[in-house]
Amino acid sequence: MESPLFKLCSSISCTKTFLQPISTVNSPKLHSINKRKKLVCSAPSDSNSVCSGGGVFLSIGTHLIPHPNKVEKGGEDAFFISSYKGGVIAVADGVSGWAERDVNPALFSRELMAHASNLVEDEEVQYDPRTLIKKAHAATSSTGSATAIVAMLERNGTMKIANVGDCGLHVVRKGQIVFSTSPQEHYFDCPYQLSSEAVGQTYLDATVTTVEIMEGDTVVMGSDGLFDNVFAREIISVVGSYNNSADAAKALANLAYDHSQNSKFDSPYSQEARARDFDVPWWKKIMGMKLTGMK
Amino acid sequence: MESPLFKLCSSISCTKTFLQPISTVNSPKLHSINKRKKLVCSAPSDSNSVCSGGGVFLSIGTHLIPHPNKVEKGGEDAFFISSYKGGVIAVADGVSGWAERDVNPALFSRELMAHASNLVEDEEVQYDPRTLIKKAHAATSSTGSATAIVAMLERNGTMKIANVGDCGLHVVRKGQIVFSTSPQEHYFDCPYQLSSEAVGQTYLDATVTTVEIMEGDTVVMGSDGLFDNVFAREIISVVGSYNNSADAAKALANLAYDHSQNSKFDSPYSQEARARDFDVPWWKKIMGMKLTGMK
Q1: Chain B residues within an 8 Å CB radius of A192
Q2: With an 8 Å Cβ cutoff, are B201 and A275 in contact?
Q3: What is the mean pLDDT of chain A?
Q4: Smallest CA–CA separation between B43 and chain A, in Å?
Q5: Each residue of A242-265: b (16+ CB within 10 Å) or e?
Q6: Are B191 and B224 in contact (CB under 8 A)?
Q7: Cα separations in angstroms, A22 against A230, B70, B182, B239
Q8: A243 φ, ψ to 5°?
């Protein structure tokens, strides 16, 4: 189970705060059989000030747990962080299928991230994550392939993201996820991937999005090792429980690892597989086996 | 069940195509109990050309089905479209709770959209959807509140989106959703909403995102009446089945309506409610009742 993970917070002049989700347990209308929207019941929104120009930067915590079977080689994920401008974060996940061809899947992802780290301030990149992926991919000579995501934050609060494959990024604001990237795949368990081979994807396949980061937001980035094993509501809960980025990153990575090791846990990956009519054969179920996100 | 819906396609010099998802039925590895990523198996990505400057515009189809109990008043949703620049689309969903105060929930959403439509080319708006929401909200004098989403496409392919509440937008590319907005809510069934009251949200609460639209993309926008009743995989399937925007919009709206009227259909809304520990009481279940997205 690989899960490099970043937890980032814009922390400018004000104190960074993580708000808990509003409890709905006592709401009397929730047992209606027809949905009926309620009137707003919140405080005025003036307290929501958009991060102003020149002020935003990222408070970063990271934690990586390699797959138990890949500890000796350090796992197949790689990442880098940079404090350039508002901050740059990136994750690459080496495609494990290369091991079947006696290729270490970690080499490609590590070299890709090393080049990306060195190219962050490159003139041609012009702080554009898709261009950074283009140049880092072109510079990578290792055999293999990897999914990759890069996010670059401007000081004015604009975070630009380029994503190829099934790494991901969530923005948590006031106890809810207000932005998420979407994974790209050819079919189940075959994600879009930057590759040393001609059939792979390129920077042109990256989904390019931007999101306006606000004061106090938390950005959670990880490989699918995180998002296959931890539900969004769990990410929100953990983010709301820690003020320290490093502690929260460690807690999320540990939660993903624990879920991946729990054969009884019905993970997001397992649920998605069933929703798409994939599951273990009946005879494996009798043996207590199940489709899991453990990788 | 209210579902104003847009299906938009960037159609520049080339022919617009909707690709079906790649079948995985015969994949031999899907019964493994451990997830193992497969190597890429696609054609090269050179065919993915980013929409070039000056070329992109939206081919629009719309379809609205009012809630059966609200047909006489035309429902509580409103929307507008504009061909300005690459195109502008917007949806507002009047908050039904106002009916309890003898206020027609449709008035606020309709006036909001009317002002937004008139302000699209306003100098101060500068083609920024959050500013458009700010000015349209300020101009709206009706009592009530509404969720709202506005998307504005530049000719260079950049679509900027401002969203307050639980309307939504998906971008479908090559048989998969590559971008989705995230709903904002105070608690279950109480979405963020622009309001005539001081406690409501403002443009500052809007989640502001952008996505780079590519040739052949399909953009699906709707109120929660669509997304509470139709799964993402169903949206992808419908989008892949029609070349005509109007036909696809009608098919999606009809599917949402049919699901909302089917007491046996386990909708996205029903599943989300259960995941958050909300459901009908046991004695209602005995009577065959269930929590549904029918509104």
Answers
A1: 40
A2: no
A3: 80
A4: 6
A5: beebeebbbbbbebbbebbeeeee
A6: yes
A7: 21, 31, 17, 36
A8: -95, -15
- For residue B210, how far is the Cα from the chain centroid? 15
User: Which residues fall within 8 angstroms of residue B190, CB to CB, at 6 or more apart?
Assistant: A37, A38, A39, A40, A41
Spell out which residues of chain B touch residue A43, defining contact as CB-CB under 8 Å. Answer: 199
pLDDT single digits (tens) A249-276: 999 999 999 999 998 899 999 888 888 8
Test A204 with B48 for CB contact under 8 angstroms.
Answer: yes
**Longest Cα–Cα distance in chain A:** 61
Chain B residues with CB-CB distance to A202 below 8 A: 45-46
Contact state of A37 with B95 under an 8 Å Cβ cutoff: yes
Residue A238 confidence class, pLDDT cut points 50, 70, 90: very high
Structure tokens at B246: 């109007």
Closest C-alpha to A188, from B182, B233, B18, B47: B233
With a CB cutoff of 8 Å and minimum separation 6, the contacts of B246 are B7, B61, B62, B63
| Burial degree of B166 (CB within 10 A; 0-12, 13-18, 19+) | buried
Compute the distance between CA of residue A201 and CA of residue B174 in angstroms, rounded to an integer.
14
Which residue reads 């948590």 in tokens?
Answer: A172
Rounded CA-CA distance A133/A129 in Å is 6
pLDDT in tens, B246-277: 899 999 999 999 999 998 899 999 888 888 87
Count of CB atoms within 10 A of residue A210's CB? Answer: 21
Residue with tokens 């009397």: A28
For domain B6-249, give the CATH number: 3.60.40.10
Q: Are A107 and A146 in contact (CB under 8 A)?
A: no
B256 sits in the region (left: phi over 0; alpha: psi -120 to 50; else beta) called: alpha
For B235, the token pair is: 């949206």
Partners of residue B88 on adjacent β-strands = B82, B152
What's the CA gap between A68 and A72, in Å, rounded? Answer: 9
Distances A249 to A112, A113, A256, B67 between C-alpha atoms, Å:
23, 20, 11, 44
Tokens of A87: 């901050």
* Contacting residues for A106 by C-beta, under 8 A, at least 6 apart: A70, A73, A74, A75, A76, A77, A78, A94
Interface contact flag, B279 A202, Cβ < 8 Å:
no
Determine the Cα–Cα distance for residues A107 and A120; give it in Å rounded to an integer: 20
CA distance B137 to A44: 15
- The whole-model pTM stands at 0.80
For chain B, the DSSP string reads: ----EEEEEE-SSSPP--PPPPP-TT-TTTT-SB--PPPP-S--GGG-PBPPTT---EEEEEE----GGGTTTT-SEEEEEE-STTEEEEEEEE-GGGGGGT--HHHHHHHHHHHHHHHTT-TTTTT-HHHHHHHHHHH--SS-EEEEEEEEE-TTSEEEEEEESS-EEEEEETTEEEEE----EEETTEE--EESSTTSB-GGG-EEEEEE-BTT-EEEEE-HHHHTTS-HHHHHHHHTT-SSHHHHHHHHHHHHHHHHH-TT---HHHHHHHHTT----HHHHHTT---B---
CB-based burial of residue A283 (10 Å sphere; 0-12 exposed, 13-18 middle, 19+ buried)?
Answer: exposed
